Input
Amino acid sequence: MNDECRERLKRGVNLAADVVAVTYGPNGNTVISGNHVTKDGLTAVSWVKDEDPYVMMGINLMKDIAKKTVDVAGDGSTTSVLLAREIINNCTKEDIPELKQGLEETIKYLNQVKQTVESEEDLIKIATISAGGDKEIGKLVASAFSKAGKDGLVTFTESDEVSDSVDYSPGFRIENGYSSPGFINTPQETCELNNVYVYISDTKLEEAKQIVEIADNCMKRGKSLLLIAPDFDSEIYVFLQANLHLLQSCCVISPSFKKMRSIMVKDMRILLGEKSLCKKVVITNHDTTFLYDEMPEEANKRIEEIRAILEEGNLKDIELDFHKKRLANFTSGVATINIGGYSQFQIKEKLDRVEDAVRATDCAVKEGYLVGGGISLYKFSNSLNAVTCSEEFLNLIEFPAKTLFKIKTITEDWIENYENILISHGVIEPFLVTKTSLENAINIATTILSCECAINNNF
Output
C-alpha cells in the first residue's frame, strides 16, 4: 500500500468521522438525508458515500465499527468512530502494542469504578442520555424497564396512535434471530409477526413439501407462521419468501445446543401452550421475542422444576446461567414501547432514539454504569493504573472529555467540579458503552495501521 492509497483510506475515515461528530454528546445536533433526520451516529454514518473506492473503504470500516458497537452496547457509535480517527491520524504501526496494553489497563480500572443501577431515576438518566437528551423518551424507556422487572424484556414498535405508550404482557425471548434477512418487514430491520402459529421441528427442515400443509392452514386461518428448527435448507427460504405477499413468515434456528437445545425446545412448547399460538413475535438479527395473552397452567410445574435445579447447587457457571435464563423466561414478561407521531418522518427519527435508549439501558442494568462525558476515561489517565501506558494512549482516552467540553487542558479541580455536576444532571453512561467503544476503536484502527495492501474489486 503506497502513501497515496493510505491517504485516500484516511480520507474516508475522516469523512465518516466529520459526519458523526455533528451528533456527538448530549448536546449533539441532527443530520438529515432525504426524508429522514437523525441524531444517531450509526444512522448518520450509514448515509456517507464517496465515488473513490479507496475512500469508500475507509468509510465502510467506520460504518462497521459503529454497527458492532451498537449491536453489543446499544450506543457509543459516534465515540467509537471518533476514537478510531484519533488513533489512525496520530499513531503508527509501532504504537500498536502500547495501545493494546493501555486498553487492558483501562478496562481493569473501569471495572473497579463502575456502579450498579439502583433506582428508576438511574434508568431515566441513562435512557435520556442515550436518546440524545430527550427526557420524555428517557422516562418512557425507564417506565418500560420498571414494568418488565429485573429479568423482564423490553421491546419497541411503531404505533398507529399519535402518542407514545407502554404495554405489558407475558412473554419470553430466545437468543437466535431470523436465519435469513429476506424475512425483514420493518424499517428497523426486524421481522414482526402478529397472530402467529409457531411450528417447532426437532430436525432440519429440508424440503418445501414438509411445510406446505402448515403454510396452507395458516393462510386459510389468517395467521402468520414462525418456523423453529435446528437448520433449514435453502428450499424452505425460497418457498416462504416467494409467498410473503400471501403469508407473513420467518425462520429461526433453535436456540442453544445439544442437551440444552432439547430442554429449551421443551420450555418453548410449554410456554406456547397446546395450540402453539402467540399474539405477537418480534425477530431481530440476534434474538426472538414472543408475546402472548396469558401463561399456560403447565408452566407453574416447569417453574418448580427449574427452581429445584437451581437450589440443588453444584452447577457449572454455564449451567447456572442457562437455568437462570430459563427461569426468567417463565417468570418475567415483556414491556412493549409503542412509538406514535404525526408523520412517518417523526416516528422514524424517534424510533432511532428509542432503540439506542432501550439497548443502552439494558446494558446498564446488566453491567453497570459510569460517569459520562468522558470523565471516567480521563480519571483513568491520572490514576496509578495508567503509569505503564504510553503518552499516545493517554492522549487518546483524554480525547472524549476534551472534545465534549471544548478545552485543551483539564485540571484535577475541574474534574472534581464537573464530575459532581454531571452526576447531578444525570450525565451517566453504561459501562459496556465505554468499554465497547474503546475496544472497537482500537481494534479497527490497529487493523488499518498494520494494513499493507488494499484491493479494489469494483471494476
Remarks:
- The two ends are 19 Å apart (CA to CA).
- The domain at 3-115+370-449 is CATH 1.10.560.10 (GROEL; domain 1).
- The chain is about 55% helix and 15% strand.
